[in-house]
Amino acid sequence: MTAPSSAYAGALLTEFVRLGVSDIVVAPGSRSQALALAAAELDRVGAVRLHVRFDERVAGFLALGLSLETGRPTIVVTTSGTAVAELHPAVLEAHHSGVPLILLTADRPEELHGIAANQTTTHIGAYGDAVRRTFDVGAPIGEPGELEVAAALAAAAVAAVRGVDGATGRLSTGPVHVNVAFTEPLSSAWTPGEVQLASVPIPEPARELVVERLAPTKRTVVIAGSGAGAVAEETARALDAPLFAEVASGARFGPNLAVPYREIIRDEDFLDGLERIIVYGRPTLSREVPWLIARGSAETIVVRSTGAEDPNPGHTVTRFVDAIEVVRGADDESHASMWLGPIVAASRAHLAQQEDLAPDVFGGAKEKAQRELAAVRAPITRRALVEAVWRATWPQDRLVLASSRLVRVLDQWATGKRVTVHANRGLAGIDGNTATALGVALASQLAVPGSPSQPTAGVTRLLTGDLAFLHDVGALALPADEPHPRIQIIVGNDHGGTIFDDLEVAQQAGDTFDRVMLTPQQVDIERLAAAYGWSYRRVEKRGDLDPAFSAVDGPTIVEVPLDR
Fold it and tell me: According to the CATH classification, is domain 379-561 in 3.30.70.1120?
């Protein structure tokens, strides 16, 4: 006979699958065993992709990466106690980035609360207002109608994970907490019946959109922050406006792209001429963009995202809208092109700048050969590293950028290229980057259950600093019986948090600054890779960069030493 706990868990997860969930991440535990075993059975029959991790914090960020790539909510299953708290960093990132997650936590029954029972604490409210909704369910005991209640709970959770904010009317995608208590017997055998699979992503709820209709009659700039998407590039092109697109925006391409946007913003002629700012996504990679908006001298329109908040530096945004529609008049083009042309020309001149290692075209053959050889043998700079990673990334690949100094260098020099880039920029923390990248890799390289399309992604590369890499080292533990993705972790190792060297106090505090801010480290990354069973390669010369990124068969770590 099937235990009530397993019957309920099976009904709940089966309905989640029917509603479009394609991935479940399980962190093992006694109280959550019914959920874990039901997930394994659904994986066995090909209804869902199951991923098992023993570290709940890793499991949370793995789920985040899966959802970033698929656009579908991913379920994370944990047991009771501190396991629930371990999900909090991923929950906060999902909350601010608008990533759909379902946190399915197993709890002790009511009679075990308040009596110092083992692994028993209050789960409800653990995530504060970072979850769109919380469901608290008492332990199933086999009463009539429980399985129907389980299915209804799944439907309510899916609706909440991609719901509409009642106060603002905006789409508010994010995490949802489903807490289910379980009592003895905690599990039994359970076999899924016929499982209906959803072949399309979960649709957005119906809502009234606020659409702004604009003509290219004002000198405009389009700013694309993290998660902006291709619509930002389309809007810039339609308005004949320069595009300031961060490297993780999904809009870093097109003829209107202005790469050196920091320098352009500081130009007085640009500031004097600017009349309108349009913002997509969440700009986080520069001080100049928030300053420009907060300055308040231009009309600023922010296109709402699905995250917790929309950018409003200095509280100067003129209005928030859901979409922009461009309408053109007969004489609009000549007016706009006079504004756009010099900015695009400045961007081309910026990208034409070379580091001091290019061959001298006016020298003789011997001098050219010597300079070329010197360039090949030269130590690797941050610019050389990020440009090599960018060159190696193609539309079939995925690039994940950790919050480190390197993402800002790449943002300064990456040319226009339409590739898929992910980054945890909701809170821009250094935790969880490796787990997120693994989630992206698995989601892009494995077939989605029930979907007729096959995965086309090539290699996933994570570009990270050494501290961000070490912060998430537990994510390197890959289950032996699960697929290992084609992933390459590229660690720019400058032995500490050199991003803090830009702080004003860095030159004043001396050794004290290094101890508490730089936090120098001397971890042997090669041995670390070997301990976790990853391939390893060390690259020290520029001439070895491109070959190092050319072919990836499985999990690989590439260490690139960098000067402070």
Answer: no
